Amino acid sequence: MTQDEAKLKEKIEQLHSNDPMQLKAIYSNSKRLLIEAPAGYGKTKTMISKIAYLLVTKKLSSNKKILALSFSVNAAYKIKKDVTSQLPQLIGALDFNINDKLFISNYHGLCRRILKYYGYLLHQNLREIDNLTSINDDDYQELMSLKVGLRHEEAELLTKISDSVKNINNANYKFLLDNWDDYIQIVCKKLITNKYIPYNAILMFVVQLLKSYTEIKSFYQKYFEIIIVDEFQDTNILSFLVLDQLIGEDNQVVFIGDSLQRIYGFIGAIPNLLEKCRKIYKMDKITLSQNYRFKDNPQMLLLERNIRANAENLSKPSISQNALIPLVVLDNQEEEAIWVANKVIELKEEKESNRIAILSRSRGKNIDVIINKFKENKIKYFYGLYTDEDPIYIDFHKRCQSKFIEFLQSEKNITKTFIKKYLKEIEDTYSKSSSIMIESLLQLLSIFLNRISEEFMSLHNEDKINLIQETFNNYALKQNMEFVNENVVISTMHAAKGLEWDYVILPDMEQNVFPSYRGFCSRCNFKLNTVSGFLCHPNFGHFNKKDESKYLEEISVFYVAITRAKKQVFFSASRSRLNSSGEEKNSKLSCFLSLSGLVLKEL
After folding, report:
1. 3-state helix, strand and coil shares in percent for the chain, rounded to the nearest 5
2. Are both 517 and 377 inside the same structural domain?
């Protein structure tokens, strides 16, 4: 061991408090390593220390790179920022440029980069991929409205491919492969030629390129000698196929993720991917075991542990001690809204700087009552009730993307002046809008662009363009909610993934709301649950495999919502709820609150 290696190991062991599983993951020489990392277990810190260790111990050959990928563009650039700031603290003065050793991106950012260099082999317009307008191929009407000569059956095939990616199973995977070449041909002739590119095509073209040109595939397998993928549980089939082309016999591969945080199944995240890849690639597995987020909070630590235990074995979870659920049950939605508002006021009075999130499974009449109560009490809050399927949310990103491409035609460099003019243009576009969602999206856009001007101005110009493009293409402005000035946020649970607050309130813990009617309750309809008074108890003995899969997807959202709290999570419910038409209906308490190891503590 060299002196530099010894110094680094000493720093790493001090930084990680000699955590045995984190150190095992960092020092592992396994060519194929799977790291299971639950929320709050030190995943990011472990990943950065592993990168430092790989660099110092010369595991990376000269002129080669570590490829670090993440599901979301925001997470990828956060990793890049953390690596840039923390590597020197571990290694000391760097005798190399970080960009010469690391390429950090999301899947689409990586594929855009590859297509810029070699995409011309498939279509000459891919040389200028930044100037192509990204479109979704899941909307038949939108495809036909492009007026590029798409025939009915061609547009229909594109939408069916998109649907297969989002709902991957054996039949849909076969459909994807059987129609792959037709998809590529249609996109090339009708869309790329007319300066459009479907979002899925960015990945599919790279898979096609690497399969068709083995010398290019060989180059990238050698160039990205080490591949590290964060948030691996959120990988969809197209991203996986890109990865599979990049992984050669000699590559060192590290996948980091947590099956219980897979909440993007509705947009194609592959079920049980971590376990499937452990078998496919014959990977060694290390599970991080120490929860640092809740290490000084026994109640939250126990709650997190017991929910994980239920997810691992629904019928016979390994529970050693019950966790208390702080719950208030009110007679109706109006009373529940009053309680939520008063709880926020109370937490703010305790400490003005307390950051609080009210997380809802989705938008609807019930959360609207809470919002109205906040307005009555003049509680300042940020509106973050976004979904990736919301037409307003999607259209805002598309307009931002279209205007950005337009700006790039006259000015290629992303300067502060460029950003100021661009933001003013978007604000003027929506100057007459009274929509609370548009108002909050404009705020997030301003925050995001200011971050480009400040935090990310040192990036290469191409990286800045990629970051902006991928944020709009991924509908990812919501990931900037952590930077809003308001200390109170009302958000969907999906939009809150990756963010943290001091306190989290989960209202409407009722049947048909959470689990949602579409997510699980419509399947159950009291056939899979035992009802006792106001309580709903899951009867796992009646579940089939599909029932269990759907229920676990909802538990994953439940887990993600709870683990957004750093100090405490509070639950509320009412004995009557509002349906989608605003009609008052009798309700039952969510079956999540009847899971093994959870005991209700009414407030």
Report:
1. 55, 15, 30
2. yes
